[in-house]
Amino acid sequence: MKMQDVREIGKRWGVDVKVGRSKQDIIRDIQAREGYSACFKTQDTCIYTDCLWRKDCLKEK
Fold this sequence. Notes:
By secondary structure, the chain is mainly alpha-helical. Helices cover 43% and strands 0% of the residues.
């Protein structure tokens, strides 16, 4: 997902999306607001089959 898309989603969730914040940090904040574990790019597997970030998260690290 492109950074512009991540920022748009972040704005909807009330997350700080200012320039300079990493995509990874913004996504983790969104995950926490969604009620998920803020785990983006921290694990090799994912238990959340419906996570919006799953495809980007599980790409080669």
